[in-house]
Structure formats: structure tokens, C-alpha cells
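**User:** Everyone, produce a chain:

**Assistant:**
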Amino acid sequence: MWEVGVRRSFTFLLRPTAKQAAALAACLHDHRELYNAALEHRRTAYRRAGVTVRYGDQSGELKHIRADDPDGQGRWSFSSQQATLRRLDKAFAAFFTRVKAGRTPGFPRFKGRGWFDTVEWPRDGDGCRWDSQPEHPAATYVRLQGIGHVRVHQHRRVPSTVKTISVKREGARWYVILSCDDVPAETLPATGAAVGLDMGVASLVTTSDGERLDNPRRLAASAGRLATAQQALARTKRGSKRGGKAAARVAALHARVRRQRLDGAHKAAFALVRDYDVIVHEDLRIVNMTRSASGTIAQPGRNVAQKSGLNRSILDAGWGVFLRVLAHKAESAGRELIAVNPAGTSRTCSRCGHCAKENRVTQAEFRCQACGHEAHADVNAAKNILRAGLALRDAAEAA
């Protein structure tokens, strides 16, 4: 059964020629320069004259910028440059939102080469065209203004109309990202089953049914090669050609780890949405959990080395990536996903409900001090998570 209304993005590897790769790099460089110049314009106008410059003002000046620089800014799509200016405008809007909320503001910063990796075309057909050469049945191309028809490694079908097109650089690779509205959602057959998930480091996920999904520890597996590449980079002179190659090697290794982690998350999430109608997971605050314990000079932290190692293990497990992918797949498959507060789930007996820290004998062993129930600690926690999620669902239905 198919339903309509899901918004999704599709990412494909680009296969540019050497000339096209150089043009893509130039396009990214010019959009970064435009972003930084627009930021400097806003800062200077407010500092010297107290004038607030907005997106409409800067968008109106684009035609003059393009006319004065026909071989630079004038080469690229006008709408893609507007998207870059909107990106800056969103950064300022987020800044003022944080100021009003009393949070750490974080004023918009100038973008260095490593911090600006994406160019967006807001509408297919305006400076870009997906599947631009349909007469080639065995290959797919995307046309980008100023760059040409770039071949795409399309490994899956795009089942809806393309709305926006973005190009992203990751190391030496280029990707095209398609954003589509009203993508048909393939609803999977009902199974009548529900499951609770306990996130961990030893195992990525432990289910309330006792199944454990392995944590492949991608970063740890590549630690030796990364250390060698980073040592080689440290021996080079900053800005040298050799240093550039060494930096590209480090970036390529990190990108490989990221792709492996994402691939594993997709496979694990698909297995869960295929087998269960209701999936309950912990509502984790990963940023808080991985905060440094180093403290300050006046009040130094305790067990800093152990906390650092735990933080690295949590990030290597990729909880955030997995939960993001799981949410997308659950929505597409018509499954119900429930997030619950994990407080106390690892100390509470899933049989009698007794809660005490003494129940958690070791990291893996659970023994209730009240009723004597014994179980794997993660399985016990997953059962508590499932019970809490079903209670939340019943309360919402009764309200």
C-alpha cells in the first residue's frame, strides 16, 4: 500500500570530469566568498552606521555584483546565489532567536574552506536540471549552470518530482542531493509486534526480545590508519602541496568511517521497521552525554581520561545517526516511533518494578534485590523502555 505526503532527500555520487571538478570547486569557492562578503557587509553597516542589512537588500545588489564580475560571480546561477544569501539570513535569524531565549548566542562566523561545502539550487529547472539528458538510458546527468552536464551514479530510482538540488563536497568526492516533496511512502504489512530499544556501546542496540545488534566500532577499526595519516600530515609544512595531499588522505579516511556508520545504521533500522509496528527508544541527549569532563583550572574535572574514552565510544557508536535514520524509515514504513525518558530504566526490575542502584550488579548483569529476578541488564532496560512507551501511547489515546 502506498501513501503520499512524505518529504525525502536522495543522495547520489557525482562522476565529474577533471574540468567539471575544477568548475565545481570554483563554484563552491565563489559562493563562499559571496557568503563572507555578505556577512562583512552586515557587520560593517551595523558597526559604523547602526543600519541593519537584510536579505532583501543584499539580494537586490546581486545583479550589480554579477555585472561587475562576469567571469566570477556572473558565471553561476542567480537563484543559487540567492540561496546562499538566505543561508546567511537564516544564520542571523537563529542568532537572534538564541539571544531572545537567553542561550549562548554564537554570532555568525566567516566560513573557511573547510566549513562551506554545499551549494543549493532552490528549484529544479532554474540554473539546474535533474536528469538533463534522458536520451541516455544507461546514464543519468544533472546540468548545473557554469559547470555543464555532470554524470551521476544513480543507484536507486527517484519516485517523485525533484524540488531542490544541492551539490556537496566531501573530501575529493562530490555528491548531488535531491529534495523531493510528496514522495510515496511504502507502508509495510502490519506485524502486531512492539519492541523497546536500549542503546549501548558494547552493542549498538539491545531489544526487549533479547536480540543484540552489534556495534562495529568503525572509528576504532580505522584508528591505526588514521593515526598514521595524521602523523604524516603533522610532518608537512602548512599550505604545501604535500600537506594538501596528506590532509586529503585524513579527510578521506574520516569520510569512509562516516559512510560505513551510515550504511550500518540503514541496515539496522530497516531490520527493526520490517519486524515491528511500534518501536520505543530512549530520548537521549547525546550532546549532554558527550560533554567534556575536564572542568576548569580552578575546578578540574574527575576521571577525565575515562570520560573522554566513553565520549569517544558513544560518538563512534553513532547513536544520533541511527536514531535519525530510524525515524525516517519508520515514517516511510508507517511504523509508530515513541521516545521515552530513560531515567531509571537500567535500575528498575522489569518484573516487579523495584528500583535501586544495587540492582545493577555489573555492566551486563541485573539482579533484583527485591524479587531476585535475573537478566541481562540491557534486555531488562529495554523491557522497561517498551513498557514506558506503551504507557505513553495509551495515555495519549485516552486523553
Observations:
- The chain is about 45% helix and 20% strand.
- The CA atoms of residues 22 and 90 lie 29 Å apart.
- The mean pLDDT is 90.
